[in-house]
Write a structure and sequence with these properties.
single chain
Length: about 80
Amino acid sequence: MAKSNIVKANEKIAEKVVDSYKKIEKGVVDGYKKIEDGVVGGYTKIEDKFIDQFLTRDGETIEEAKERLKREQNNS
């Protein structure tokens, strides 16, 4: 009887530990994703502004300039 109470108590503790770990893990992963999205978004804005200012040709959009630059780089 005593052994089954100890086993039950251990199972409850294990469940609480696992649940707590999952909550912490979710918080860390969600925080990382937010930071990653912010960094990538900021980089993309800077990249687009640079391409618009210095690398586009007359009447060319940013997307067209990016495609042209990729083709030129692949041909080199």
